[in-house]
Specification:
mainly beta, nine-stranded antiparallel sheet, single chain, about 190 residues, elongated
Length: about 190
């Protein structure tokens, strides 16, 4: 399943972006940790364990072209670590950046400044290293800093706010293409409220 989801290689959710009608620059941090335990005793191969850590710091920014058109850019820096029975590896560096253009369908003044609805699309660029090897063998693809492929994204964001409280819903779809090694991660659909 790790090759399908890509563990650390998602990261295309925009999440809550403050001051929606202004330019914005910020940092976002996330961490995912996994403990894997595989018992191969039925195959006479023994026991295997691994502690994996995927840390990600994203430089995010938004630039508004007028009141309706917004450009969002995300540049990730990744710290990946795998401490296992048979493999101990750590890597860090720039991941695959994402650039998106969003169009605001519902302008804030339409319904008493409470509703925001945007739709958009973008591209993920293959700038992260994707061919890390350990002892001459390619390391798991989900552990790499990048995918080596151009990928395409569609998203929609809805915000409702009243006074200082609000609700946000987001849906994103990423269509992954194959890299030069002819490897392709599965497409991804994310949603959150």
């Amino acid at each position: 399943a790790c090759d399908v989801c890509g563990c650390s290689l998602g990261g295309f959710s925009q999440g809550v972006m403050p001051d929606y009608n202004s330019h914005f620059v910020g940092l976002r941090y996330s961490h995912a940790g996994f403990h894997s335990r595989i018992d191969h005793t039925s195959l006479n191969q023994g026991f295997e364990e691994s502690e994996d850590s995927y840390q990600r710091t994203d430089l995010v920014f938004r630039y508004n072209f007028g009141h309706r058109l917004k450009m969002n850019v995300l540049i990730p820096y990744l710290f990946n670590s795998m401490q296992g029975t048979h493999q101990r590896i750590a890597t860090q560096g720039i991941g695959d950046p994402i650039a998106m253009i969003n169009y605001q369908l519902l302008k804030e003044a339409v319904i008493r400044k409470n509703h925001f609805l945007t739709v958009g699309g973008g591209i993920k660029l293959p700038l992260g290293h994707y061919s890390l090897q350990d002892n001459g063998t390619l390391v798991n693809r989900n552990f790499q800093l990048g995918t080596g492929s151009f990928d395409f994204l569609l998203n929609s964001n809805y915000f409702y706010r009243r006074n200082k409280k609000g609700v946000m819903a987001e849906a994103s779809w990423k269509l992954n293409t194959a890299n030069k090694q002819n490897y392709r991660f599965g497409n991804q659909l994310n949603g959150m409220v």
